[in-house]
């Protein structure tokens, strides 16, 4: 049997539905914050990541999926999304667009040759967003708030935002020297990689996985002690905006991030739910003002964030967040003979195009087996297509829960389903998960807030949403 590659996952069944739900919330929130979707290739020139992510990072030295293609080009499977977005920004001269800054988001697979363990895969999926062309601390705060609001909108409660700053070039240089002076007398006690890092890139010693528990490493100088005044003011401004946006955060001076392109703000968002394990950083990001010019473009300040969707889905499951994942169908069509089967083919097509979730029999089961299949699929209604009824332009429709059956005109079937499915759709009780509501329900976007009380009447025209909206009694 051929097995999947180590560190790669098959996502299917209920889990796949959760992934699609996450994608839908990401798309919805990105639209609200006015980020445009961008797709860049999974393969890029190897040099992009060496120059972009950094020669001495683990991602480049140890985890890179490099190969030569048939034309002898050095190619790498992207380990992250930012470098590709920046390449695209430069190559497509987006810096010349009238609309600046450029705000984009992406969602796709990345590849890192890591030792597979819980929360650490070789093929991972990230969504991420970048603001290119703004140095305003408000854009740092916006990126952090957008990340937090995606988690909140999904219903996650147990998260923690940690922020730090690396400062500008001058501050980083002062910090680098402080690290070299600090580590030099002890460097023999560190791994071989760290010994090399000392001269090349001492910051990378701080995120070494081998020496992570070394007490000397834990007591290393912190970036905040080496900030110049400008960098300190800038960091305070970011915090001011976060306070205005009511985003809770803590300053964690240990955050330096494992990629070389950062300066100024860096941040990570952790899952705090019990049982998550050690790889609990759901996502991270920060400012990278030097990357565009490093890759050959004009001086362009940027900031961004990326989240690992696999870890996010794990957090949603551990927190037992209610999600509008449907595993029901509206109607199961049954038949016995070939004429009835042809009618099932015709009717399923019509009803699906009218917007209903419809399934039918494909394995030649008898009626008893078909009823069982309808139950397995959680069909809300069933129809046994009987030739005699069909000749009279009629059909028997049965509510699969109450078992009530009615003989109705075929012309009336769509209206019947429309009307009766509305009654069937139940809104979840206390924490309302939008998405399972009828056309007339507009989600207010605050369903997961603590104070939202769902009245259970989302289908009714007179539904009043009691969540914290602009207007307390806003009707939705
Ligand atoms: P990163 O911290 O390398 O940042 O990755 C972001 C997130 O991707 C992590 O927090 C984690 O959730 C997920 N992730 C990373 N590696 C793995 C793995 N091996 N298995 C599972 N999940 C993983 C970046 O990638 C930057 N590009 C973020 C950014 C965007 N900075 C500025 N803009």
Low-confidence stretches: 427-476
Ligand roster: histidyl-adenosine monophosphate
Helical coverage, percent range: 25-40%
Beta strand count: 16
Distance between the termini: 53 Å
Largest sheet report = 8 strands, mixed
User: Roughly what fraction of the amino acids lie in strands?
Assistant: 15-25%
How would the global form be characterised?
Answer: elongated
What strand line-up does the widest sheet have? Answer: 1-5-6-11-10-9-7-8
Q: Compute the number of helices.
A: 15
- On the 0 to 100 scale, the average pLDDT is 90
**What class do helices, strands and sheet pairing give?**
alpha+beta
Radius of gyration: 28 Å
Short synopsis of the structure:
This protein is an alpha+beta fold and 476 residues long.
What does this protein structure show overall?
This protein is of the alpha+beta class and 476 residues long. It contains 15 helices and 16 strands. It has helices at residues 13-32, 46-52, 58-61, 82-91, 137-154, 169-183, 192-200, 215-218, 229-244, 291-294, 309-318, 338-353, 367-376, 387-391, 413-424, and strands spanning 36-37, 43-45, 65-68, 74-77, 102-111, 123-132, 159-165, 250-251, 263-271, 281-287, 302-308, 329-334, 358-360, 379-384, 394-399, 405-409. It has an eight-stranded mixed beta sheet, with helices on both faces. Helix 5 runs parallel beside helix 9 (229-244). It starts with 12 loop residues before the first helix and ends in a 52-residue tail after the last helix. It binds histidyl-adenosine monophosphate.
């Amino acid at each position: 049997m051929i097995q999947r590659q180590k560190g790669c996952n098959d996502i299917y069944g209920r889990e796949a539905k959760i992934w699609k739900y996450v994608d839908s919330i990401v798309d919805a929130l990105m639209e609200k914050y006015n980020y445009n979707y961008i797709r860049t290739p999974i393969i890029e020139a190897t040099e992009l990541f060496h120059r972009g992510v950094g020669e001495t990072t683990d991602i480049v030295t140890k985890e890179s999926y490099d190969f030569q293609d048939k034309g002898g080009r050095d190619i790498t499977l992207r380990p992250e999304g930012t470098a590709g977005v920046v390449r695209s920004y430069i190559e497509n001269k987006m810096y010349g667009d009238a609309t600046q800054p450029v705000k984009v988001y992406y969602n796709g697979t990345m590849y890192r040759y890591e030792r597979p363990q819980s929360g650490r895969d070789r093929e991972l999926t990230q969504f991420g967003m970048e603001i290119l062309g703004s140095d305003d601390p408000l854009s740092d705060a916006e990126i952090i708030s957008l990340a937090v609001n995606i988690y909140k909108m999904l219903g996650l409660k147990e998260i923690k935002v940690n922020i730090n700053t690396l400062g500008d070039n001058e501050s980083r240089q002062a910090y680098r020297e402080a690290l070299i002076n600090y580590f030099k007398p002890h460097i023999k006690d560190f791994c071989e990689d760290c010994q090399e890092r000392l001269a090349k890139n001492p910051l990378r010693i701080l995120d070494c996985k081998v020496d992570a528990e070394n007490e000397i490493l834990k007591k290393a100088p912190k970036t905040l002690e080496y900030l110049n005044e400008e960098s300190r003011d800038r960091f305070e401004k970011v915090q001011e905006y976060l306070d205005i946006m009511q985003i809770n955060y803590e300053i964690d001076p240990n955050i330096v991030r494992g990629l070389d392109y950062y300066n100024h703000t860096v941040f990570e968002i952790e899952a705090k739910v019990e049982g998550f394990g050690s790889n609990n950083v759901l996502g991270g990001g920060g400012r990278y003002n030097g990357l565009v010019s490093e890759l050959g473009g004009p001086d362009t300040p940027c900031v961004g964030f990326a989240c690992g969707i696999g870890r996010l889905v794990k957090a949603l499951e551990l927190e037992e967040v209610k999600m509008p994942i449907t595993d029901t169908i509206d109607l199961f069509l049954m038949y016995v003979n070939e004429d009835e089967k042809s009618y099932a083919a015709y009717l399923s097509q019509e009803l699906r195009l009218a917007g209903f979730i419809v399934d039918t029999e494909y394995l030649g089961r008898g009626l008893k087996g078909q009823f069982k299949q309808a139950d397995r699929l959680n069909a809300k209604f069933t129809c046994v297509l009987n030739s005699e009824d069909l000749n009279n332009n009629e059909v028997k429709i049965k509510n699969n829960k109450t078992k009530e059956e009615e003989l109705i005109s075929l012309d009336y079937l769509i209206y019947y389903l429309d009307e009766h499915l509305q009654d069937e759709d139940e809104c979840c009780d206390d924490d309302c998960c939008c998405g399972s509501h009828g056309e007339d329900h507009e989600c207010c976007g605050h369903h997961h807030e603590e104070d939202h009380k769902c009245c259970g009447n989302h289908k009714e025209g007179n539904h009043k949403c009691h969540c914290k909206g602009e207007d307390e009694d806003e009707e939705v």
